[in-house]
Design goal:
By secondary structure, this protein is of the alpha+beta class. The protein folds into 2 domains: 1-92, 2-Layer Sandwich (Double Stranded RNA Binding Domain); 94-136, Arc Repressor Mutant (Orthogonal Bundle). 46% of the residues lie in helices and 18% in strands. The chain is globular. The N and C termini lie close together (12 Å).
């Protein structure tokens, strides 16, 4: 999984996100934590659009490399912060996975999935996606 460095700036209630290595990819949210989650969704859509248009997504630079970029240094000087955002690219192709879970946990997962009207697989995929985004 690739991670792209994002610049987050703004104030409480209005944060914006831009990606130096993904021109035109932006996100907004009320908090910095929400901004990172929204940024992960925006990044996935941006890269999917690049691929659909026959282009390849640019390789993400490291934070250290970006800190040598004049525009990035200027944004940081004006209050922006760096954040690492995961690129979660979905292929639309399903793959089987054999996993082992505690029987009680599996029962709770199945109950939670039923309450939400989704399958066990959909519930677990959503939970994994949310956890990956939150660990940015």
């Amino acid at each position: 999984m690739s991670r792209y460095v994002a610049l987050i700036d703004g104030t409480a209630g209005a944060y914006g996100v831009v990606f130096p290595d993904a021109p035109g990819c932006t996100a907004m949210a009320a908090t910095q934590d929400e901004a990172i989650v929204e940024a992960a969704d925006a990044l996935a859509e941006w890269v999917a659009d690049e691929i659909a248009d026959g282009r390849t997504a640019p390789e993400p630079r490291s934070a250290e490399s970006l800190l040598t970029d004049h525009d990035v240094r200027q944004a940081i000087a004006m209050g922006a912060v760096l954040a690492s955002v995961p690129l979660i690219l979905e292929t639309g192709r399903l793959a089987r996975a054999n996993i082992s879970l505690d029987a009680g946990l599996l029962a709770d997962i199945d109950e939670a999935a039923r309450r939400r009207g989704v399958t066990r697989s959909a519930f677990l995929a959503t939970a994994a996606r949310d956890k990956i985004k939150a660990s940015a």
